[in-house]
## 1
Amino acid sequence: MMMKRPSSTQLIIGLILAGLGFALATQIASNSSAGLQTLPQSDLVRILDDLTSKNSRLEVERSSLIALNSEITRGGASSQTALSAAQSRADALEILTGQVAAHGPGIVLKVYAPKEAIPAEQLVAVINELRDAGAEVVEITGIGEGANVVGVRVVASTYVVRERTPAVFRIDGVVLRPPFTFRAIGDGPTISAALNIAGGVTDQFRRSGSGVALTIEQDLTIRTLARLTSPRYAQTK
């Protein structure tokens, strides 16, 4: 007997569910390698609360998608309603994966660094802190190879490598030099508080000799898009 082929709406929902699972796994992995044993209890409690909150939101979204898929399978939802719901979630996933421009409230963090002042782990620490504080869209801009300002959209697979040349970094394959500007869309006061925590990323920049300027924005636009790459190892299941 021939099996019924899944509809396009069900395929969209399946892709979104896979994306949510990958987002949760990445979030947990980013914190597990961050040297948690050296953090004070207050920071550990904050990180645990952040992960618990993110896990709860992802579980709610996952349950909603599973329920919607069940309705479609049973024929209990109209095609238009189902397609509209799936499309709205697909739009959200496009934002999270850096495939479309986005705007909203957030923060702008500018880092003015003297030569050789920034180790790669400090840039990674900023990215992780922004994620932990609930930033939904993140962009890093700096000076590119042609002396022009170049931006990189931060996604789950983003990596940072310091080149042998002083103060030169490669972020997702893009060469960037300071000064750096981080733009993040999310709850501005929450993100600002996380970045300014005692001993946090802004403190670390200042201790290494960098100048730091942090502002909360009511509405900022991020137009840089992430380069879409095919996974080498991960497969849908």
## 2
Amino acid sequence: MNTPTRPMMIDGDGHVFEDIPAIVARMPAEVLKTPIIGTQGPFPPLDNLHQALWQSPPQSFEDPGGVRGWSEFLDSANFVVAVLYPTIGLAYGRITDKDLAIYTCRAYNDWLADTYCKADSRFKGLALIPMQDPAAAVTELNRAVTELGMVGAMLPPTGLPMLLGQDYYWPVYEEANRLGCAIALHGGAHQNMGMDNQGVFAAVHALGHPFGLMLNFTDMLVNRVFERFENTRFGFMEGGLAWFLMIMERCSGSYGAFRPTDPPTHAVAT
């Protein structure tokens, strides 16, 4: 009698708890002279909305024990791969100093590769890339994929000056398209989406993740990002599924009713 084959299990959205001192130690000496880096670290807070009274089930939102704990979890759950995302680093889109964004992303990527990806081949890292400076983001994406062995990059749906479908960011997608890697959007910083006075964090969490994805997916869709960079594997994480069905229904009707009459030159050219 043949033994049933177990399905291949992949954790597509696993989170690490950043070791801030270890990340800071990978930053240039001149950056370490900045007092704020030494006291608070390079990442800004996710938002003010997480500062609320709430409880979570036991053992949720806890560090499993670093690399060893993560590896043991993969063993126990029969996962063959875990794609790793940051936790406090989800807020990196809120960094306004471009140079700090570049240094922070590079240091985080080096730390993740050294600490997790080199320790267990089942860990696949998604890089942070400084979208505050698209040219620097292209350079860091290439380095992360070709030198550090990462599978792509994570982009923040909030914090940046423009939605992610704008052509300002297209050089990043062009490089991802050339590399054939992943670009994954993941929320977590929920400010400036109409919920800044919501006092119950459960509501913020419920709406914040899909809201950020909806805004950026729609912007990328109508600006034809998915058509232009079809070799890039885009992902939209931790927002569930229902938002996607609603957006497709709404966009199908609205685009038919309000089709652009004077599309941008770059759209006409193709």
## 3
Amino acid sequence: MYNLDQSIKINLAINGPAILDNSEFLLNAKDEYNRNELLKDYNSG
């Protein structure tokens, strides 16, 4: 368990925290996807 804990801490220090649901990048990507889907539906009639 100690080794797992240390490896998790090392990965966090190297890679940073995981992308959260409310991160700016993810929200922008979701908005862009929704916009493209809406335009696709609108253009196809």
